[in-house]
Amino acid sequence: MVLWGPALGALLLIIVGYLCLPTLLRHRGPQEPPLDKGSVPWLGHAVAFRKNMFEFLKEMWAKHGDVFTVQLGGQYFTFIMDPLSFSPIIKDTQKALDFVKYAENLVLKVFGYQPMEGDHQMIHLASTKHLMGHSLEDLNAAMLDSLSLVMLGPKGPSLDAGSWHEDGLFHFCYSILFKAGFLTLFGYTKNKEQDLLEAEEMFVKFRRFDVLFPRFVYSLLGPREWVEVGQLQHVFHQRLSVEQNLEKDGISNWVGYMLQYLREKGTASVMQDKFNFMILWASQGNTGPTCFWALLFLLKHPEAIKAVREEATQVLGEARLDVKLSFTFKFSALKCTPVLDSVLEETLRLGASPTLLRVVQKDYVLKMASGQEYQIRRGDNVALFPYLSVHMDPDIHPEPTTFKYDRFLNPDGTRKVDFYKSGKKIHHYSMPWGSGVSICPGRFFAISEMKIFILLMVMYFDMELVDPDMPMPPIDPRRWGFGITQPSHEVCFRYRLRPMQ
């Protein structure tokens, strides 16, 4: 029996060696990008990458140039840092680069949902049908009702609503947008107070899952955290179950359309529950953090908030509450806010850090704008990180780390879309929503709900930072590559409801 220990150890070494051998023996081939495998076999640069993706890629870019391949946990990723060379990758007429398989593996791991063939196209079709045009207007109206309920309460403003209240700005924005979005998409019962309590409980669970999310994706959780993630997943599957939704009214047509599709495809109800969790995350994981950055930038730049307030008054009129004790709003005004549009676009430029990934399905020739060609191996990954290569490029965006509320405005007040790199007009000058097949299908609704919330805040409320001289909080390095960044620490602010006419 004693001999089993060494025998099993030897067997394990053989298996590990067999699995790692291809990566250990790999060398840069002819016409391939510079290869940097790191000093640790198989892991490569995984630790440095996961610790601070932004700093790691900046270092690799300086070391290797616009194209380089790095080893991360046994996989190889080729990063392209020249935005003038993005178009062939995003369009991919050769059908050599696949996004869907990567996305399917991710949602199975994170949400427990096993995608079916055609799901990706169905979600985009549902979003085109129900998150644009007249359908978007209906959803905006539902969102306004939900924001009124969350921000003013089921019985309207309390007697002390006009007094100053103090909160963390990140928590304030995230909780309000989440609760209002959750109620808008998944409906109400007949008890509004109970609905608010449920939405608050859901947010507490959602926020905890959100904190664990980056390390969960990278499989870096401790034993107790793995158990906690499993428990949180179960809570969301239960709270968002199809059975519970049957008891609610006002479920959005967007969610209803997708669930109907799944039912017609014979998807099990338990899998539909997991699908709802995925949709909740996709729709509500970024809007709150974006609004945090937007309001913080406005509060730190008096000229910006002044311009937004003047525009809001011009297109919406004076702020007032209607007889139902809810906010009044002209939804047509959302198409007439170029200043706010520029503020939001600038906020996304500074705050959005998505990673665009494609799995190489067959040996691929990468053609750069310079004319240089590189061979990319089948099974590798091609990656873009626009935050570093586009949003922070001083050639495209002068003084890139500075918030300029009118950066996306022409002198005549129209939207600015002409940006240049190396003297050439660039199409991909801002990429907060991804691009191509991986572009966010719900971006139009996300933009609308964020604009409505920001306009309500600047019109109906007085706001100020507790410490006006505080520096901008640094970005939490764990959030790089996961959509909208988050601050490393909370920011305290005060707010109060203005007296209504």
Automatic annotation (TrEMBL):
Gene from which the chain derives: LOC103747146
Q: Which residues bind substrate?
A: 109, 286
Q: What is the organism of origin for this protein? A: Nannospalax galili
- This chain's protein is named Cytochrome P450, family 8, subfamily b, polypeptide 1
Residues annotated for heme binding in this entry: 440
- Where does the sequence pass through the membrane? 6-25
Localization per Swiss-Prot or TrEMBL: Endoplasmic reticulum membrane
Regarding protein family, the annotation reads: Belongs to the cytochrome P450 family.
Query: In Gene Ontology terms, what is one molecular function of this protein?
Result: iron ion binding
